[in-house]
Design a protein that fits this description.
Number of strands: 8
Strand content: over 45%
Helix content: under 10%
Strand order of the largest sheet: 4-1-7-8
CATH architecture: Sandwich
Distance between the termini: 40 Å
Radius of gyration: 16 Å
Order of helices and strands: EEEEEEHEE
CATH topology: Immunoglobulin-like
Number of domains: 1
Largest sheet: 4 strands, mixed
CATH class: Mainly Beta
Structural class: mainly beta
Length: 119
């Protein structure tokens, strides 16, 4: 099973649907995972399987201060900026920018320890 950490950096509760890819071809669909991120919440979400570790898209929606927001992004070709965002990062930060919610991907910082160093 694959996993990804989502950070909601907004004041809105976000309803999210992850679209899981079957295999490596973006034309193939393996299902979806639905969850909610409360304001400021961080959650690790498990999805797919060993055979289906890739995401094909995301649907994000919220209702905040009288405004309904809905956004759908779907990968149609491997190697695009959005495909790489979803599938080459283990952490997805969601930030409010103007009237949009924007995703940024990152991976945990690796700390290298030199075994030859003395305290």
């Amino acid at each position: 099973m694959a996993e990804k950490t989502f950070n909601n950096r907004s004041a809105a509760s976000l309803q999210i649907v992850l679209l899981v890819r079957q295999g490596s071809n973006p034309a193939n669909y393996a299902g979806e995972v639905v969850f909610t991120l409360r304001p400021g919440q961080t959650r690790t979400i498990f999805y797919g399987s060993e055979e289906n570790p890739f995401l094909n898209g995301i649907v994000m929606s919220t209702n905040l201060n009288g405004d309904i927001y809905s956004k759908t992004q779907i990968v149609t070709v491997r190697g695009t900026q959005f495909d790489n965002l979803l599938n080459f990062n283990s952490i997805i930060d969601i930030l409010p920018i103007s009237t949009d919610y924007v995703m940024f991907g990152r991976n945990p910082e690796m700390v290298m320890q030199d075994s030859n160093m003395t305290p």
